[in-house]
Amino acid sequence: MPHECYAEPELCIRSISTERTKPYSACNPVSRVCIVDRVGKCPFCDLDQRVLTESPAVMGSCFYCNASLRNRRLAVDHFVPWSLYPNDLGHNFVLADETCNAKKSDALAAVGHLETWCQRLDDHGPTLGVEFDSVGIIHDESASRRVTSWTYSNAEQSSARLWIKADDFEPIDATWRSVVRL
């Protein structure tokens, strides 16, 4: 049975049918992120932040700046931005503080962040899959890795700049190729 929330339940991350076939975008129809408030629940879908914060893959810190997420506004960020690949797969989600999420916006993350993301999948991909299943989030680790490789390849071809932190960016180079493991 689908979870009901917000004015448009089809936009809620928890409104996936039990068969996990119903498409969804994200909790917040404006910013396409699930904002988790200070008490640990998403105001749009009531998604409990423990799904991501208590995972060994997250360890309670911002994916990008490593700051503790205790008593901070959180956002579930698309590692490969929604604007570059509009499909929600659980392994593409990372937990970030609201500031890092806003600063990264629709940019690809720097190679250092890519390395962390790949290592997280190497170390915890299957565990995350089980956790995503427990809350009805569609996931496919292999597809997420392929999409990431494809996106960084396109970024390299267009000489894109990668987000490091705050307002800092760096030009992409071929080093990302040695990081991505398919």
Can you tell me about this structure?
It is a single chain. This protein is α+β, with helices and mostly antiparallel strands and 182 residues long. The chain has one domain (9-179). The chain contains five helices and five strands, in the order E-H-E-E-H-H-H-E-E-H. It has helices at residues 50-53, 98-104, 111-135, 141-157, 176-179, and strands spanning 34-36, 74-78, 93-97, 161-165, 168-171. It is globular. It starts with 33 loop residues before the first strand and ends with a helix. Residues 1-48 have low confidence and may be disordered.
Task: Report strand %.
Answer: 5-15%
Shape: globular
Side by side, the strands of the main sheet go: 1-2-3
Estimated helix fraction = 25-40%
Low-confidence sequence ranges: 1-48
Please give the radius of gyration in angstroms. 16 Å
Can you tell me the number of structural domains?
Answer: 1
SSE class = alpha+beta
* Biggest sheet details: 3 strands, antiparallel
Distance linking N and C termini? 35 Å
Give the number of helices: 5
SSE run: EHEEHHHEEH
Mean pLDDT: 75
- Number-wise, the strands total 5
How would you summarize this macromolecular structure in one to three sentences?
By secondary structure, the chain is α+β, with helices and mostly antiparallel strands.
